[in-house]
């Protein structure tokens, strides 16, 4: 593994910083302490800092040996927010805030990008052009990337490409992955209310019972992916919440269904939404029930552009050798870096978090997987992730 020695030397200090961020998790758009810490470190290292994009977002500008005259610029992005969940770990750096936890490793993403910024600030002779380090808020549902874009991220800081990276538990430690095309899915939610006419459960002829209508609808929704979506395309329709009724002898007035839809393309998403609406309205109508149908599109699919994905892959190969770069399997999870990739070419990369052996004594009994209360970021990734960021920026800015 060809790590930059200076990043191996700074790794312990950066790991301490990562653990400090882990101990003080902050939720969507509340990343005040975290963004203060990020901005303070960047300033300490002589990086020009801009704050307030997407409320708590931070952008650091690093100009190379030409003072940025080449006009070439690259964006490297990390997310800073935590999740609203209770941590099971009890080690020293476990969350000090009840009900908040860095269970997705954004503490580690922030730390790896800080390490890279520290290196690049100390080695401006090692690149030409401009590196923007982007620390975004509110990845976990708040659309912090979208808010930074709205606040002029790409107009105030013009760049030709943008890259992001997520740690990935279960992948063999010491490996990385990136691929062209879909990396993560679009994330969407729906709410359907089947509105019947409630009444006495012993007199079904007097009511419009929404329960069997909802039951038919739940099963019918499962025919969309199997019967309407082209078999070689991917899609998920999951009904995850069913709410109805409060007494055994009362037919409820309505049933509420909620759930999620995931796709890799907008075409499949359009098809699924349209079929869901048709099935909901038609099945309700057939039984004399009313239908309320709401469909909300949250995050678009995260689509890597081919050239930038291949470029990132070459840099991974340079650091890890062929055997260290594994095929990237797209995930049906979602990622708001998608909003940045709608604006600029770029790629979302994955860095292995290992299987959990790295966790300190006192970790919870659960698996070390994303959004699990026993998760912890693997600090051993810091020099690798930071080396990747530095080399990616240097190589990309030097490419013609
Ligand atoms: Zn997450
Ligand atoms: Zn995440």
UniProtKB/TrEMBL annotation:
Asked whether the UniProt record includes Ligase among its keywords, one would answer no
Entry keywords, A to Z: Hydrolase
What does UniProt give as the signal peptide span?
none
SUPFAM superfamilies named among the record's database cross-references:
Bacterial exopeptidase dimerisation domain, Zn-dependent exopeptidases
Q: Start and end of every Peptidase M20 dimerisation domain?
A: 189-282
- What CDD domains does the annotation carry? M20_Acy1-like
- Going by the entry's taxonomy, the superkingdom of the source organism is recorded as Bacteria
Entries under Gene3D superfamilies matching the protein: 3.30.70.360, Zn peptidases
Record bears the keyword Iron-sulfur:
no
Q: This protein is called what? A: M20 aminoacylase family protein
Species source reads Comamonas terrae
């Amino acid at each position: 593994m060809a790590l930059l020695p200076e990043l191996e030397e700074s790794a312990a200090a950066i790991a301490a910083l990562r653990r400090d961020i882990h101990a003080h998790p902050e939720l969507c758009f509340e990343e005040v302490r975290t963004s203060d810490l990020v901005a303070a470190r960047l300033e300490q290292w002589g990086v020009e800092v801009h704050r307030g994009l997407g409320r708590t977002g931070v952008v650091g500008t690093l100009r190379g040996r030409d003072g940025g005259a080449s006009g070439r610029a690259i964006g490297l992005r990390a997310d800073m927010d935590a999740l609203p969940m209770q941590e099971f770990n009890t080690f020293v750096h476990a969350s000090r805030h009840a009900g908040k936890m860095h269970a997705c490793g954004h503490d580690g993403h922030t730390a790896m990008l800080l390490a890279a910024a520290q290196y690049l600030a100390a080695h401006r002779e090692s690149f030409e052009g401009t590196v923007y380090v982007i620390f975004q808020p509110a990845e976990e549902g708040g659309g912090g990337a979208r808010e930074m874009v709205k606040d002029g991220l790409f107009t105030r800081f013009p760049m030709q490409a943008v890259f992001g990276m997520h740690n990935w538990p279960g992948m063999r430690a010491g490996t990385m992955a990136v691929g062209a095309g879909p990396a993560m899915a679009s994330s969407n939610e729906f709410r359907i209310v089947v509105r019947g006419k409630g009444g006495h459960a012993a007199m079904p002829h007097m009511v419009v019972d929404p329960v069997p209508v909802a039951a038919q609808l739940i099963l019918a929704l499962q025919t969309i992916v199997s019967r309407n979506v082209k078999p070689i395309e991917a899609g998920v329709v999951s009904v995850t919440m069913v709410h109805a009724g409060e007494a055994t002898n009362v037919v409820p007035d309505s049933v509420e269904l909620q759930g999620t839809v995931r796709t890799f393309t907008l075409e499949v998403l359009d098809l699924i939404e349209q079929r869901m609406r048709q099935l909901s309205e038609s099945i309700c109508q057939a039984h004399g029930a009313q239908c309320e149908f709401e469909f909300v599109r949250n995050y678009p699919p995260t689509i890597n552009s081919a050239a930038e994905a291949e470029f990132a892959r070459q840099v991974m190969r340079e650091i890890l050798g062929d055997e260290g770069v594994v095929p990237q399997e797209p995930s049906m999870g979602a990622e708001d870096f998608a909003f940045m990739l709608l604006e600029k070419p770029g790629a979302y990369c994955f860095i292995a978090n290992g299987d959990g052996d790295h966790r300190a004594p006192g970790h919870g009994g659960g698996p070390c997987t994303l959004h699990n209360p026993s998760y912890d970021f693997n600090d051993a990734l810091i020099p690798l992730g930071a080396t990747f960021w530095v080399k990616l920026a240097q190589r990309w800015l030097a490419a013609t």
